Amino acid sequence: MPAVPAAEVAADLQPRPIPGAMLEALAARFGPRCTTSRAVREAHGRDESPFDVAPPDAVLYAESSEDVADAVRLAQQYRVPVIPYGVGSSLEGHLLAVQGGLSIDLSRMNQVLAVDAQDLTVTVQAGVTRKQLNDEIRHTGLFFPIDPGADASIGGMCATRASGTNAVRYGTMRENVLGLKVVTADADSVTTGTRARKSSAGYDLTRLFVGSEGTLGVMTEITLRLYPLPEAVSAAVCSFGSLDAAVATTISIIQSGVPIARCELLDVNAVRAVNRHDRLSLREVPMLLMEFHGTPASVQEQAQAVQQLAHEQGGEDFEWATTPEARTRLWTARHHAYFAALQMRPGCRAVTTDTCVPISRLSECLIETVAEAEVSGLPYFVVGHVGDGNFHVGYLLDPARPEERDLAERLNRQGVARALRLGGTCSGEHGIGLHKMDFLIEEAGVGAVALMRSIKHALDPYNIMNPGKVFAW
Question: Could you give the CA distance from residue 277 to residue 268 in angstroms, rounded to a whole number?
C-alpha cells in the first residue's frame, strides 16, 4: 500500500489557531454564543474515537444557516479551520480539531421545517436528532427508519453516510437524502436536489456532500424520504449454539429473498454486556435479533420462513417481543451495546472495526476475525448489521497500556485487509475520519483518492473545512 508522504501528513497537523482579530469579529457578531471557555472547548474536542487531540480554539452555537455562512466567511478570511459538530457520537475522530480552529455546534438548529405527508418527505435543520424527528412526525403515520446506535443528529448522519439496524430493508442515508442546503467554503449557501423521487439534472451534488464528513461544506438543512409506519411489526430473538450458525442463518435469509426489516447479530460478549447494562435476561449465547414489517399475514409468513431457516442451522425457537414496549426495550438494548460493552471494562477505550462484505463472504470474514480476537487475549465484543454484511468488533483496551492499543490496531488492520480481499469495504457506516485514511487508499486506490483530493482542492482551496480528515491535503 503506498504511503502518504510524511510532509503531507505533517502539513495536515500544523496548528492554525484563531487570530485575535477573528475572535473579536466573532464576539461582535455572535456575542455569548461564541465562547472560548476551556470546558466547552474540551467537550467539543472529543468523540467516541480512541484519539486524544487538543480542543478547538472556540465554539460557536449556530442558530441559522446565516449564522453558519457568516462564521465561514470569517474563517475563509482568516484561513481558520471550521469543524461541524452535531452530538459528538462519531467513532473515527471526525470532529477532532487537529489544526485547532472553530467548532460550529449545530444542536440549536433543531427545527422540523416542513412535513409533506402526501409526498412522504420532511425537511429539517441539521441539528434535529433521529429520535426527535420520529417523535415529531409520529402523528402523521410516517417514520424515518435510519437508526445508528446513538441518537445522532441528522446532519452528522448525512456527513458520515450513516445506516443502522434498518438498513437491510430501508437502505442508508445515501438512499434517503433527497436534498440539502450546504454552506460551502466560500460562504455561499447552495441548495442541492428537490423533493422529487428522482432526477437526472446535472451532477448529483447531494450525494457528493453526503458522506463527505464536513470536508466540503457545512450541511444546514436536509430533505429526507419518509415511510409509512408498517401495519404490523414483530420482533424476535433466536439463540444459536455458535456464531457460525447465526451467520449462516443470516446468509440464508438474505439469499432466500425474505424482506426482513432488521437482522442484528450479538456475540456472547455483547449479550452479556447488554444484559448487565439494561437488566435483561437474554440467554448468553450468540443470537440474532430480528424484526419483521408488513401486513399481519406477511409478517407471519416472513417469520415462519426465517424460523425454518434458523432450525436448519440448529437455532432455537423464536422468543417474541410483540408489544411496542417489549420491542422498544429490546432495540434500545441493542443500540446501547457499544456503551454497555465499555462498562464491562471500566475506564477502557474502544477500537472498533466497521467492515462490510458481500453477503456470501460474511461467514468467512467474521469467523476469521473473531478467531484472531480470541487468540489475542484482548477483551472484545461483536455486533453487526449482518443482514447487509456489516459487522463491528470492538476491542476494549486500557488507555494506560500502549501495547494494548498497538494490538487492537493490528487486529483492526488485519480485519480490514481481510474484508478488502473478500470484495468488501473498510467502512460500512462509520466513515473514514482520522482512523481509516490509509485504508481508504488501499480500498479505492491512489488514483481515486487523488480525484477526491482534486474535488476538495477545487471546492475548498484554503483547506478550512474539517481539515485532516478522509485523506491528506
Answer: 14
